[in-house]
């Protein structure tokens, strides 16, 4: 049998403040983003289902947390509007926004969450992109914007029970928070940033806290009967079902946000005015349509098309699978493909080449599951 | 008595018919198994031939023939219940039966104790 690709490498791996707890819980640890991270505890399907039905607890301390401060009012927002194609100037205090850092070619340096907290901004970037983001920030530095790379733990609690589980541990009234908002408050007895956000398609929260406070917070949450610890394996199936991009697969230095189907991160003002890195290509793609488009793919059978599988229509290449696997809640194979826009219509049948054989997949609506995040006005 | 390969397949010989599957260690490493693609009955295998594919939630993995022979039977139960491999990899979760060309070739494979020692070297 061929080994699944999770063998250890010789490189020196970092550990999050929760490493010992993952190990003690019997998690299978794998190298990820330069860290030794839990792939799974009880099993991917069980963890996935626990998150959809109750609450999943994730250690995402490998992700990069950054604080931006400014010496001139408006400098940080202006700088972020140069680095991203989103509306940052209009971001309300306590508001969080998902967006991308674009490169000169209109590709993506990283996808991230930007939160405005009073006089400063907080950014959360992908663990595997920390160094690339830092280099990008240094290459585009603004003397009026100070960038601090924080050493803090980050834990995510996701699922329908997340609010009820977390509320007693947080001073602020988290039940009153809308999705994509954040507060600086006291949580687990320490100063924390609590955001109502996540990357699973479920309602949920992320808590940023000092590294030395992470263990006690983790213990308090994992000790709650409604909570299951969840590793990277289920994190991937959850985000795939929710239609969310993974950097390095569905987003890259070459793939533009328009191609990746996240053109919604660019509001109308920015589409008209431009003024961000890589605006030429991105504005042209909005005007004329992109060369390829990310689509959702489902299959009737049980053979999943995984990342890298070629996609063909009438024997000719139309694109490639960027992410793929089995969706435990969907109950079958699902994937994202980057395809010729002529083949991006819902219902289009495409052949995915899996081990040399064609597997029929059908272009489907994204997300594969309706989102259950808590939007403004919902209860 | 079962014999084992370094690629984590097991073989149990009864006369010249070998039952072949993946080891408990292998199913544990793969995680939740969602589909097993088995070969056609009648296919002739050489040692090392990839004869089956295990799809887990995480990845697709090839399974290699531990011995030369002809496939005489496949485990049809895996079609409906691929999770049998997780539940009983070295029992009800077997993959194929093989009419082996050379029964003595099984002697070259590891016995349980040797396989257990081998597992310690890769952990």
TrEMBL record, chain A:
Pfam families assigned to the protein according to its UniProt record, in alphabetical order: GCV_T, GCV_T_C
Any one GO cellular component localisation term in the record: glycine cleavage complex
Keyword Glycosyltransferase belongs to the record: no
Enzyme class label: transferase
List of residues binding substrate: 206
Reactions catalysed according to its record: N(6)-[(R)-S(8)-aminomethyldihydrolipoyl]-L-lysyl-[protein] + (6S)-5,6,7,8-tetrahydrofolate = N(6)-[(R)-dihydrolipoyl]-L-lysyl-[protein] + (6R)-5,10-methylene-5,6,7,8-tetrahydrofolate + NH4(+)
GO terms for biological process, alphabetical: glycine catabolic process
Keyword Transmembrane helix: no
All residue ranges annotated as the Aminomethyltransferase C-terminal domain in the record: 292-368
SUPFAM superfamilies, alphabetized: Aminomethyltransferase beta-barrel domain, Folate-binding domain
MF terms in GO: aminomethyltransferase activity; transaminase activity
Alphabetized UniProt keyword annotations: Aminotransferase, Transferase
EC number: 2.1.2.10
Domain GCVT N-terminal: from-to ranges: 18-268
Family annotation (Gene3D superfamilies): Aminomethyltransferase beta-barrel domains, Aminomethyltransferase fragment, Probable tRNA modification gtpase trme, domain 1
Family: Belongs to the GcvT family.
NCBIfam families: gcvT, PRK00389.1, PRK13579.1
Stated name of the protein: aminomethyltransferase
Originating organism: Acuticoccus mangrovi
Classification of source organism: Bacteria, Pseudomonadati, Pseudomonadota, Alphaproteobacteria, Hyphomicrobiales
UniProtKB/TrEMBL annotation, chain B:
GO CC entries: cytoplasm; glycine cleavage complex
Lipoyl-binding domain ranges (all copies): 17-99
Keyword field: Lipoyl
Database matches in Pfam families: GCV_H
Cofactor binding description: Binds 1 lipoyl cofactor covalently.
InterPro entries in the cross-refs: 2-oxoA_DH_lipoyl-BS, Biotin_lipoyl, GCV_H, GCV_H/Fam206, GCV_H_sub, Single_hybrid_motif
Residues where N6-lipoyllysine is found: 58
GO biological process: one example: protein lipoylation
Cofactors that this protein relies on: (R)-lipoate
Source organism superkingdom: Bacteria
Alphabetical list of PROSITE patterns matching this protein: BIOTINYL_LIPOYL, LIPOYL
Protein purpose: The glycine cleavage system catalyzes the degradation of glycine. The H protein shuttles the methylamine group of glycine from the P protein to the T protein.
Family stated for the protein in its record: Belongs to the GcvH family.
Assembly with partners or alone: The glycine cleavage system is composed of four proteins: P, T, L and H.
UniProt-listed PANTHER family: GLYCINE CLEAVAGE SYSTEM H PROTEIN, GLYCINE CLEAVAGE SYSTEM H PROTEIN-RELATED
Protein name: Glycine cleavage system H protein
Organism this protein belongs to: Acuticoccus mangrovi
Gene symbol of the encoding locus: gcvH
